[in-house]
Each structure stands twice: as C-alpha cells, then as structure tokens.
Amino acid sequence: MTSETLALTPRISDPDSFYEALIEAHRGLSEEASQRLNARLILILANQIGDRKVLDEALALAIRTGRT
Amino acid sequence: MMATRRSYPFKRPPELDSGKRGHLPVIVVGAGPVGLTMAIELLERGIATVVLDDDNTVSIGSRAICYAKRALEIWDRLGCGEVMLNKGVTWNVGKVFFGDDPEPVYTFNMLDEEGYKYPGFINLQQYYNEEFLIARLQELGGEIRWKNTVVEVTPAAKGVTIAVDTPEGRYEMACDYLIAADGSRSPIRKMLGLDFEGQVFEDHFLIADIKMKQDFPSERRFWFDPPFNRGQSALLHKQPDDVWRLDLQLGWDIDRDAEMKPERVAERVRAALPGVDFEFEWLSIYTFQCRRLDKFRHGRVIFVGDSAHLVSPFGARGANSGVQDADNLGWKLQLVLAGKAPEALLDSYDAERVYAAKENLLNSTRSTDFITPKSAVSRAFRNAVLELAREAPFARPFVNSGRLSVPAILRESALNTPDSDAFAGKMVPGAPAADGRIRVNGRDEWLLTFLARDNGGVNHKGTGFTALYFAGDADADKAMAETAKAMAQDAIPVTVYAIGNPNAAPQGLAVIEDAAGHLARRYDGRPGTVYLLRPDHHVTARWRAADIAAIRRARDLAAGHRAPAQIKETAA
Fold first, then answer.
1. Does A32 touch chain B (CB under 8 A)?
2. What is the number of alpha carbons within 13 Å of residue B295 lying toward its C-beta?
3. Complex ipTM, two decimals?
4. Which of B388, B398, B400 to mutate to test the interface with A (most CBs of A within 10 A)?
C-alpha cells in the first residue's frame, strides 16, 4: 500500500460484473444487516488501503460528492 | 447489605478551643485516593499539611477497582505500593465476547516484557486502597480531620482562608495553597463558581459486586450484546477476597428503584453467571459524565482528581489520572514554597495535567462511543468490527472495550529540553522513567524504588533531580564525577548515578549495575548518555554527552527558571 494519492481513474476490469456482485451480496438482507455488510466491507477495504492519507482523501470525496 | 467499612473518629480540632486561626503551607480537602496521595506526597517532601474530609469512613463499596502501573509506581515512591500489589489481584488477560458466541472474539494479553516491579494493572477495592493510604499517611505523622466540612473559601493573592464546620462548631484556617481533592461534585469548585464543562451520557450502569467462590481465572471479561443483557454491554472483573464485579449496562429509560431491588439484581446475576452461588457485597447504579475545568489552577486554589476532570469509567482513567495529578504537583509546590522556583512553575501543573486530562477524555469518549453506539450506523460499524475480529486480526485493534490507562507522556511540556541527539525507544522527554531490574552494592533492586529511597530519603526529601549517566568512557567518567560533586551542592540538587560496572567506576560516583540490561535497552543508553529525571521521575532531558552547564540548564528549565514567557507558552 504505497500509493500516495487516491486513484480517481477506473481500475476495475469488469465494472458491471463487480457492481452486480456488490448488489447481489445485499439480496434478502434487512436494512440493518445490509448496513453491517457495508460496514464490514468498508473496514476490509480500508485496511487493504492502509495509507491514512489516501483514506482521508476517500472520506473527503465521499462526503463532498454527497452534498449536491 | 453493604459490608460496613472502617470508620475513623472525629477529634475536636484545637482551633475550636484556642480561637486562633491556624496556618499551614498546604491544606488538602478530600480524603479519597487522590487527596490522600497528595497529602502523603507533601509529607514525604517535608511540607506540613492536614487533610479535611466531610465524612468519617473510607469508601463505602468497592468503587474504583483498577489501579494502573503508573499509579502503583507513584505509590511505591511514596512507600505504599507494595502493600497494594500484595493485596491486589494481578491480571493481564482480557477476553472480549460478542453476541451468543460462548468463545471470545479475541483475547488480549497485557503482559509487558519482564523486568518491571509492577504489572499493567491490579484490581483492588477502593476501601483497601484508602485504608493503605491512610495507614501510610499516619506512619508519616499526617493528620486527617474527619467530619470537617469546608463551608467557605476566601482566596487572596498570597493565600486562602477557609471556614470549616465540625460537629462541635466552626473554625477558620489559612494556608498558602488549598488543594481541592473534594471529588466529582466538588463543593470548592461550586464555591468558586467555576464552570465544569462537558457532557452527560444518557445511560445507566449497574454494579453488582458479589462474593462467590468460583474458579474463574483472574481475567477481564467484556461482553458486547450478550444473551443475558441483550443490546447492552457487560463486564466481569475479579477483586481480592473472592469478590467479583459484574458491571451491566442498563440503558437510559429504566426504573432505578426497581433495578436496585436485590431480587431483580440476583436475577440478572444468575442470568450472567448461571449456577453460581453468591452473595452481594455492594450494589450501585451509576451514570457518568465527561467534564473538566478549563484550568486546574485558580491562583492559590488548585484542583486535583475528579474535582478537576471526570471521565467515563471505561479505561480506569479516573483515580489513576488523579494520582498522577498529585505526583505532578507535589515537587512543584515544594520548590515554590521553598523559594527555589517561581510561582509560575505551578502553571506548568495546569498545562501538563490539562494536556493529560484531554488525552484521557478523548480516550474515554472514544471508548464510550464504541461501547454504547449513539446511532444506527455507529452500531453497524461497531458490530461489523466485532464480526470481523474473530477471523481478521486487522479488525481487533478497532475493538474498544476501554483503552486502559497509560501514563501521560508530557511531550509538549515547556519544562522539557528538546532532544538535540538521536535516540530510539520510548523514553522521550516528558515520559515517565521506565523501571528495570538493577543491582546496587551486590543487591537486587528495582530502579524506581531504589531512586525513591536513596535520592528521596537520604538526600533532600525528594527535592532533587536525578541524572542517570551511562558510564564506560574513562575521560567522561572522570568529568561526570566532578559534575556530580558540584551539582550535589546546588540549591536544587541533582544526584548522579552511574550505570555501569561497579568495579570500574571512578571515585565519587554512585554506581547502578544494569545487571539485566533493562536500562541500556529501555533508555537506549550507551557510554556517555545522560538522562535527567524530574523529582516525579519524568524524563526532562537527555543527551549522548552532557557537561555540567547543559544539565544545570535543563534542570533550571524544568524548575521554571526561565523567562516567564516560556511558562506561558505551555499554558497557552
């Protein structure tokens, strides 16, 4: 995890398939269970990134883009 | 149902008959763990004091039960650490449970590397802690005036006058400094009209201290959302005399009286600990708050412990931080009262302990948010962490069942001399000095105990600073022997100990043998290295090589002898 800035260009080779897997993972879950699944996933991915600076940039991007 | 604890007799104060207003350099108000520690600290330093308490007993009930290494080391310096260690239950293992799973999601072991006199924590009922402190205080000739209630405080520029109510009448006393150790509801704080800012947490917790003969190991067990306390948390801890603490979160909307009924509590205990025979030792329902005074020093009135700062119980940061307040304040008062330091040195108490209180409040607030999530999404993340923790080690550091008290490292203190040389390890300026096994004159000793006894007892009643010098370079050794001789005569003396080979030591240097290699490792010491410790055993400066001028400069800085601007910088 040596990247120093948040990647904004596409990096996932088959976006439609990953998106589908993401939605599929939530099928049949209650609102609460869904929220927990998302939380687990965020924690797993955050640890994979590791770099606090990148995480802060990701957090800022998520907050900013939700403001419109 | 509560065991009655020892009570102490009221004695008619002499002022009631003489009609004269007594005067003491320092008066301590409040005979809890912090006030008692403060008074012992003062007596050890040769400062006359008296403790006033509005009650006549030690703590009713176990109350604060977890005492941390640093508090134990402070009590060791004050001559009552071992008695606490011997009576207390030592524990190192903590297990965290989640939901219905009978297996812990993870287990932590706080066992330090070996070679410390005191463990990370002991559990001990607060009444034992207070009894030991009272015994030590009496050994030193100290006086506690029970049933003496401070009802008026009149601060002035050069001292404080107080009025004290007793069962046999009212009297007045004056002092140079008044120490308010009068607890979370501090009457003195109210008398001075000081704001106590912070937040109240809307939650109730039940403490059931029960006596049971049970072969549980002495470990800390913490449950998130267990079947016996759905949606809430629970904690089980062992105390001496087969007493166990069960601490159950109850939530905000409860019927307090109904929950306190012994049948109701018994039902809860049986659910948590099926098939166990027990009797009650102490029951209590508490709420908690996180608050602190903006400043701990208000002229000649100085606040220590709960009167100055309140944290949640998660992490055992209440009593343990209060004891560090007393540790920080004692030597500064001594130097100021002796005219050896400017009064502004006392502002560094404020700066250093406000810094520590902020750290404690931050940690305890974070623990509280994890243990009692305040929103659905906060709960989702908390549960997600716990679900992951079993399988994924990366999630375990997020699990926060209380970040257990560790001493404040006063990194930003203006009393410190910033490093000019490179060092590895934890002994940065501001850190409390690490203990270690040593040999002195062929005897096994602990470093901190030895320093307290030797440097405190023999020389200057603890006024002195200590320099630890790693010997081995013949020329530097000779120079250090001269330095040691000169600094022993200073107004604020520095006692030098050479760490090295007792058979090769130059004349005039007291030698500590680093028999187990703890000091070289913990202090990153090599020949020439010098550490300067304050009287409270915090590192204040260190060098790879130091002459007498450098050591004196650092000592004077630590004693507040610089332009007042330097002190103001810390307070800001």
1. yes
2. 14
3. 0.94
4. B388
Q: What's the CA gap between B145 and B483, in Å, rounded? A: 46
How many angstroms separate the CA of residue B108 from the nearest CA in chain A? 20
Q: In this structure, is residue A18 part of a structural domain?
A: no
CATH architecture for segment(s) B437-571: 3-Layer(aba) Sandwich (3.40)
CA distance A44 to chain B (A): 8
- Measured between CB atoms, does A35 come within 8 Å of chain B? yes
Which chain B residues are within 8 Å of A32, Cβ to Cβ? 376, 380
Asked if the structure places residue A55 within a domain, the reply is yes
Q: Which DSSP string corresponds to B225-254?
A: S-GGGTTSEEEEEEETTTEEEEEEEEESS-
pLDDT at B201: 86
pLDDT (0 to 100) of residue B519: 97
Question: Exposed, middle or buried: residue B515 (CB in 10 Å: 0-12, 13-18, 19+)?
Answer: middle
Distances from the Cα of B68 to the Cα of B73, B242, B429, angstroms: 9, 21, 21
Q: Count of CB contacts below 8 A, A vs B?
A: 33
Helix count (H) and strand count (E) of chain A?
Answer: 3, 0
pLDDT for the residue numbered B221? 94
Give how many domains chain A has, as a whole number.
1
Interface residue A38 vs chain B (CB under 8 A):
yes
Q: How confident is the model at residue A68 (pLDDT cuts 50, 70, 90)?
A: low
Mean pLDDT by 10 residues, chain B (572 residues): 73 94 96 97 95 92 90 95 97 92 89 83 94 97 97 96 97 98 96 93 93 85 96 94 95 94 96 93 92 97 97 88 97 95 97 94 90 94 96 95 88 96 96 96 94 63 83 91 93 93 82 95 96 97 96 96 47 34
Chain B interface test: which of A30, A34, A35 (most B C-beta within 10 Å)? A35
| Res B112: pLDDT | 63
* Topology of the domain comprising B15-86+120-196+292-366: FAD/NAD(P)-binding domain (3.50.50)
Specify the pLDDT at position B459: 45
Q: Which stretches of B3-123 are DSSP H helices?
A: 15-18, 33-44, 69-77, 81-87
Nearest-CA distance A53 → chain B (Å): 18
Dihedrals φ, ψ of B146, to 5°? -75, 155
pLDDT for B502: 85
Q: What is the domain partition of chain B in residue ranges?
A: 15-86+120-196+292-366, 437-571
Nearest-neighbour CA in chain B from A51: distance (Å) = 14
Q: Please indicate, yes or no, if residue A12 is contained in any of the structural domains.
A: no
Q: Which of B380, B392, B398 is closest, CB to CB, to A36?
A: B380
For B383, the closest of A36, A42, A47 (CB atoms) is: A36
Residue A43's domain comprises 29-68
Tell me the mean pLDDT in the region A53-58: 97
Report the SS3 class of residue B86: helix
Minimal CA–CA distance to B132: which of B264, B247, B40? Answer: B40
Residue A54 lies in a domain: yes
Say if the Cβ atoms of A43 and B380 lie within 8 Å: no
